[in-house]
Amino acid sequence: MLRILAGPLLVWTRNATVWLASWRTSLVGSVGEPLFYVLGLGYGLGTIVPDVEGLPYLRYVAPGLMITSVMQSVTIEATYMTFTKMRHQQVYACMMLSPLTFGDILLGEVLWIMTKGLICGGTVLALLLVFGVGPLWPGVLGLPLILLAGFTFASLGLIVTSVADGYDSFNYYFTLFIGPMFFFSGTFFPVRNLGPWVERIASAFPLTHLVRLSRSLLSGTADAPPLASLAVATLIAAAAFAAASAMMRRRFLP
């Protein structure tokens, strides 16, 4: 097992070393923005918004914001940052000249991207638990959920990166997919209020299912529907990673 992970861990270590050179700047954007969302929407707007689905608005919106913070952080890393290393810095081309295999590089990148998501989402989760927004149990299960979210959006971002011609290509992904998913995934309000056809579209978003799971864990009410969402989210993650692996391989090894 350690032998299999040796290559990916070298790639992870390289990325971590580069990140540590400017970790303070990185954390400002990765952690600061979701915390402002929680404070502004949860504590600010929550004082005038009535309970939603039996929960105070802060407890309703905060679990979703934790997952969306992972989505935003991971997506930027898997698109802009990965494209920069691939196209302009030629990092992967140099790695391919070493004993590292394509699988080592891909898995190492995914593990690093998931780490960035864990740093961001884990910080938000810790604050939510410390301030009593959610119970310690099963709230701590938010950590593996954050890793699942990171894996999912890392894979989806790599799919887009594998076909991107330049930085402008990512505008389509952020505007047509990430943006609508951010607003219509049940993070800020119940999607079913918009009608059955919007709810059906939202059910195809991985974020919708991840938000349901997050809210269930942080409200301490895990039941059958979130377990169904776990199955859907896991299937989406597996399919996205398989597609990302095939498409990135085609880009690396045409």
Give a description of the structure:
With 254 residues, the chain is mostly helical. Helix content is 78%, strand content 0%. It has eleven helices and no strands. It has helices at 2-20, 23-44, 57-88, 91-96, 102-130, 136-139, 142-163, 170-183, 196-202, 206-219, 224-252. The longest helix has 32 residues, at 57-88. The radius of gyration is 18 Å and the shape is globular.
Core attributes:
254 residues, mainly alpha, globular
Class derived from helix and strand content: mainly alpha
**Rg estimate, integer Å:** 18 Å
Strand content bin? under 5%
Total of helices = 11
> How many strands in all?
0
Layout of strands and helices, then pairs:
Layout: H1 2-20, H2 23-44, H3 57-88, H4 91-96, H5 102-130, H6 136-139, H7 142-163, H8 170-183, H9 196-202, H10 206-219, H11 224-252
Short description:
The chain is mainly α and 254 residues long. The chain is built from eleven helices and no strands. α3 runs antiparallel to α5.
